[in-house]
Predict the structure.
Amino acid sequence: MPRMVAEIKNFGVGIVATPDSKDIPTDASDYSLDVEPVASDGMVKGRKKDAYSVLGSGFSGTASNTSRVRHTIFYKRPTA
Amino acid sequence: MAVFNKDNFILGGTYTGTQTFDYEFRLYPAPFGTPGGKSTFKYRIANINKVVALKFTYNSTSVTVRRFQDEGYIDHPDGLPLFVGDSLYEIAGKEDVASSAFIGTIASITTGTEGVNVTEFTLASQPTWSFGSGTLDAQVEYRAELSSSEDLEDYTTSGTAFTNSKLYGLNFYYTGTLNATNPVNPSGGAQYYEIIHFTGYADNGFKVDKMAKVFKDGKCNVIGWNESDNRFRERKNIYADGLVNSNVAELSNILEEFKVSDKPDFVARGDDLYIGTGKNSFPLFLGHPNITQFGKKISDETIFTTGPTLVNTSIMPSLEQFVLPYSAGTTMYNASIANSSWSLGSSTQEVVGYQNENGYLLKGTKSFGVSKSVYCGGVIQAIRLDYVETDKVWVLVNKVTSYRVLLIDIPTMTIDANRIYKLTGTSLPSASSNEVKLTDILVAHDGQTNNINIYLQASDANIDTKPIQECIFGTEESIRQSYIWRTDNVYTAPSSTPAVGYTDLACTDITPRTEGSYERTTTPNINPELDPYWYGFTSVEEQSNLGGAEYVEQGHFSSPNKPLIGNDFRIKQALPKRGLFIYGHLYNASHSPSVALVIPYVENTVSTGDRHWAISEEYGDAIVSEGSYETNYGETINTSIKSTKAKIGPIVKLNLSYPDAVNHSPTGNVNVILGSHIQVFPKTKDFVYHTENGYTGVKRIPFNAESIELNYNIEFNPDIGDDTTSEIFYGDGANMSDFQSITTVINNGLIPNGIFMTESSKLHYWDILQNSAVDKLDASGGNIIDSHLLSNDISKSFFLNLNDHSLPNKTFSPSTNGDVDNPESTTIGNAILASQDIFTNTTASPDTIGFASVVYPSDSFKLYYLYDASNTVISSNQAFTLFDTKASIKIDISNSDITTVFDNPMLLPDKNANSNSDSDYYAKYYRLSLMYDGYQESVLDKSVYVSSTNPFKYGQKIVVSALPDSLNHRISHINVYRGKAYDGDSSKADSEYVLIKSIPFNGDGWADSSDGYLKYTLYDNVGDNFGSYEALTGISPQMSTNFLHYGISEECAGYLFVAQADNPEISNTDNYIFRSKAGKFNIFNWANEYCALPEKITALQSYNNFLYAFSPANVYTINPNNLSIVDNMQGQGVLSNEGVISTDYGMFFADKYGVYVHNGKSSQLISRVIEYTSNTDLANFVWSAIDWDSQHPKLAFDSQRKALLIFFEVSNNSYAWVYSVLQRRWDLWSFDNKVRAIIQGKFGEIIASDGSLFQVGTGTTRKAWEFQSKKITAGFDTYEKQFKEVHYEGTNSLDTTYKTSLADSSWNALSSNRLNSAHSKSKWLQIKVADTDGTKQLESLGVHFRPLRAKSTKV
């Protein structure tokens, strides 16, 4: 028998867990984790990480999220 | 003169630490810096020294971080910020760990992240252990150590700035002169260094379990609630809009604490948030009322306060309980105290108390309002003034995890003598219980034995909203068996406060048993326990064609031979909210104090109807026997015999001091029907709960509520007796459901002078002073036998009545309705006594009692008092004095002083009315309301104001006074309403109240005055009428409550809809949805505007102009305008209010069985494809596998992807199912930390809290991912193929593995894209592609295969 090729070119179906894995669409996934559902050209890539940068986005230059520098002097005379 | 210039210390970078650290850099100037005369520095984090709990193991350097919780140490669940190099030292007086104080230095972190959450570490070396084996939990001191020395000259430019992991992204360098002449010229061992301090602020900590956003001035602020500390937090401007120059992000603010009884629910309206906090706590308001108060623009500040619009016009808030401390602070017992010792008429008299459901103990005076407060660490349940140290108050606190008792020193409002106790005891109700809670505290001193015991009493958790008859203890529920406890002796105060913050205090349950007992007739051992028992009998009814008969048989008292015990015979009695008091033997008298408890209600068989006959109650199943027989005459006779069991009781055996024609005489031991009564625990410090070893027994003093038929007893006399005789039951079993509070008048007698008790609005007083030499005389002059009053003679008793045959008594009406100014009350307030014992006024002869004081909890603080109530010259109708608390708002009505204008609109409609005659005018009455936020109006105040001449021909002058600094910041107007009466002699209006003026507090028209108030004057002499209160507000002027406590809420059609709601006037409303007034989310006409559903509501959602109400299995569609149920869909629902969301793509909701989308007409299941799986990697995540009983789905919508996210947890990790609406595809996402709360962000993205705030899926980099293909069969599932190679298009070095039907136990690696030949002949092939760093992508997959010739052997 000649060799044949089966291809999966479009990954746009996402996870289809039910019914059985043999019966789901070719482009479906039996399992995936952290895949970006909105990917150009039907590619599979990771979903964007969560951004903890909603705060302080305008900060730059000098030290951020610190107080002003304070200054004290410690001097202890020697004991007699 | 400093050597170093702090301006040359250049700090850079962005602090990324998750905790706020104070940094201390020590700069040592040359030549004293080392080595070699260079300036040097060392540094450390200065704010992490602390006491830590650690577990040391003998002969090991391994150490575990611990935490004290409830009854002992546990492994610390979160870890502590510890650093390598820091040291541990013993604490004096704590556990002995090592032979020297120094224990060791941390060498490495075993578990957790250094400086963040360390739970395990190792010591650099073992000390010489002081314990011989095993492990030791110990509290030790953790000290941050200085780093090793660095040369400052190595860090003098931005390019060479110093940094370290401990600095979390910060760096510094020093630009100035490094080697300077030492300015202090030290010699011989002097120390000199300069310290540069700065603080790194953790900018992303926001650990909340529910949150909401509110926009103010275009900036997005987030409000969240943390379940673990029950506090709200605010994070302003989370997008840093407009921030340019600030170096520090807006930090989280912890807001004032309010009680939260359920997970809060938020609804935003404009820049205000309306927050439901559950059925047992006030709703809250956080917002920016767009009003001005006397020139101050309130909208510029954030107001966080309770939601209800109350008519609070006092500078003191309405208090749940209060005490009036004795400024001398010395004992009230056996002391010579004059009435003048309390200065109730003085402006400086202090009042200490707390607001309902609040954690702050407040101290104030009537002239200055609240002057000081102390936070007690949880919700205050009760207070009690100490009667020996009379400037200290005991406070019972619910901390959710436990109950605490604190002693507060009133002058300083601080903890006194380390007295913070955590209550322990097996039968104590859980502090988090929604069924039962501790609600009263009493302290009793025994000076002879140096005993101080605290007593605690429990009541139903919802007693404020339930009738007393429903607050029953003694049912089959285990939590309702115990209701009174005694603590261990606390005479000696703790020498210090332990590191855990409290000292354990054990409680002993002293509750009398409630199972039901036996009548004992053996003299003298007559029922020594005095436990209640029952009388039972069988009622037989015979019927036949020939006639019938009814009779009673087998009547008997409960006895060991014929027991009447078990569930049908439980002694069910209701506990009041606060019923503890001291009955006798105070302080250092010859006996110890006897504590007593009021039982206001006992569930008994005596009906309130014809009590002489309806004294029994059926129980169990009736037995019916039917038959027929034929007589000799051929007649058929049908017979029916019905036997019904009945009981009478409960009964106690008492020897009563009982009035006969002249005096009282002992009844001997008689059966007394038990109704409301007092339980006295004789010598309570030694009282023994019923055990095999003994039982002290309680004395019971019945309230026989009938006032005229004291000696008229219930006779049970069956018509036909067989083995019983007639029985007489003493007392009428009456109950006193309106009992409110009780306290004692004390002096040095064996029994206190008297007791005060409030019942509804009334105040009763009984003189119970005993003089053992002379019997007490009742009001008829008859002798009451002295010994029957003694607390330790438990079988002797008497009826405590309000008639002439009981102890001398009086009943006062301190106020007719909670306000002396109100002549037309319809709602009688409940009077609450001061939570303190009352002293004896020794300056009178004979001694009288000091003062009685009561408050009527209303919107304002209104306290009334009376001195010398026991004095014979003080009659029951004596008026009480109003404790004239300075008002924040007050109103004065006087006769108009404009005599040129007649009040003609108020002339009576009589053609002969003479305008010059006062009596020809309507009488006028004024009431007021307060407007909140400019548009939400309170109920009409109960107080009614009139002018001195009423009616008055020139009308009235109305002066409103206000203290600007004391006004609630939400109040914008005061509205003055007028009612009128045709009859000038009327005491109340006979018309509706109409608005005559709405006076804004913006300052216009207000004038200064000499008494500190701003005043506004108006005249009512032209008949102004701007509409009735009801027409303007939609709420009856008779309503006294216009708010609801609620758990869930939703805005729809301009209304706020709430469910799981109630208020002090209603209960059992889980099936109801209430609607606010339009646009007024704090105002509810709850009596009229509601929708009743057939089941409890779990969620509300607005969609498509309808309100949707959900239960776990049903969806109801409700018309928001007419509150009708227009549709009901069965078979799907929502588990909690977080399980539904409305979008332009439909309303999505989820229940235990799947996810649905509703389009406004019908719903559709969309989660079928993720319901089950055969893939082991997915097995725990499909819908059917997730444990939805222990967690409920949380829904959110990602506007960028147009995707629904459903958050859930598996094995304590957070995941989300992601449904992309346009592609109709499902994906599974994971999260780094547990997601606690979610909201929609400003741009439609999802904002979540996992301890920090973050945007879901918006980062610039991507997560590692994994993809598993379907099982590829090439169209022939049943035939084998030979799979040869696998190729992919995409980023190089993607991790590609496979499974086939011959090798499916694990993923197999490809070899140059080829399958292992042993696996290749297979029916299917599955491919897994993974990217472990998130940088790669897969474009396509290709599989080379060759179909094998079909053979039956290959199938």
Observations:
- Chain A touches chain B through 72 residues (CB under 8 Å).
